[in-house]
Amino acid sequence: MRPIRIALTKGRLETRATSLFQTMGLDCTQLIKKGRKLIVPVDDFEVVLAKAADVITYVEHGACDIGIVGKDTIVESSAEMYEMTDLGFGKCVFALAGKKGKDFYSGYSEKVIATKYPNVARKFFESKGMDVKIIKIEGSVELAPLLDLADAIVDIVETGTTLKENGLEIIEEIMPISARVIVNIASMKLRKEEIESFLNDVEVAKEIVE
Predict the structure, then answer these.
(1) 40: helix, coil or strand?
(2) pLDDT at 63
(3) What are phi and psi of 170, to 5 degrees?
(4) Cβ atoms within 10 Å of 154's Cβ, excluding its own
(5) What is the C-alpha to C-alpha distance for residues 81 and 68, in angstroms, rounded to an integer?
(6) Angle 61-63-67 (CA atoms, 0-180°, nearest 5)?
(7) Are 151 and 158 a contacting pair, CB within 8 Å?
(8) Predicted pLDDT of residue 112
(9) Neighbouring C-alpha atoms within 13 Å toward the C-beta of 14
């Protein structure tokens, strides 16, 4: 039987997760010195390094058993898996933001929203009973209101500095975000003991790191 595979989001979450693994007593030498390798042994596990959206795909389809990914990616996707643990790092918020001093909710015309997260934006405005036009943007979403392409944006905000520097402000916070542990549905049944043992170790290490 292959080792339990953990899909790990590259970048900042990878760094924080590596610290967590070390606190759990796992040998992360090869993960730290990985170079360009994308699959790396960490003790009895295999760590697969991937982009956030792909972490969800690999876990949903069973290529990986466990994933560490931001809540933003989870809520934007409609994938089926278990969301098990809030790791408490990678904290930020989903927010609706627009030009400073402009009343977003005034007027009767249909609002245009630019975002990388159309599903999150759609659900948010549906909950308010508002009809909006959503434009998907891949790069710097902040540009859209500045170019009068959109009335506002829905995006992840960490410090708010980028918004401020571009003359934008938060209109409303939508939901808090942090890194989560997700588990493949079939793996949870077939390799229950191994996965539960890992999750228990995560909970203990998480308390120490905090």
Answers:
(1) strand
(2) 98
(3) -75, 130
(4) 26
(5) 12
(6) 85
(7) no
(8) 97
(9) 19
pLDDT given for residue 1 in this prediction: 86
Q: What is the pTM of this model?
A: 0.90
Domains, the chain, in order of start with CATH, read 4-90+178-209 (3.40.190.10), 92-176 (3.40.190.10)
The C-alpha atoms of residue 115 and residue 105 are separated, in whole angstroms, by 18
Q: Which ranges of the chain does DSSP label H, i.e. alpha helix?
A: 12-23, 29-32, 52-60, 71-76, 118-127, 143-146, 161-165, 185-190, 192-209
Using 70 as the pLDDT threshold, list the residues of the chain that sit under it.
209-210
> How many residues does the structure list for the chain?
210
Find the largest Cα–Cα distance for the chain: 61
Tokens coding 191: 């390799």
First to last CA, the chain: 34
How high is the pLDDT of residue 210?
65
Q: Quote the distance between the C-alpha of residue 88 and its chain's center.
A: 12
Nearest to 64 by CA among 9, 4, 10: 4
> What letter represents residue 126's amino acid?
E
* The pLDDT value given to residue 3: 96
Tokens of 13: 């979450």
AA identity, residue 150: A
Within 24-51, residue ranges assigned H as helices are 29-32
Residue 199 has a pLDDT of 97
Backbone φ and ψ of 151, nearest 5°: -80, -30
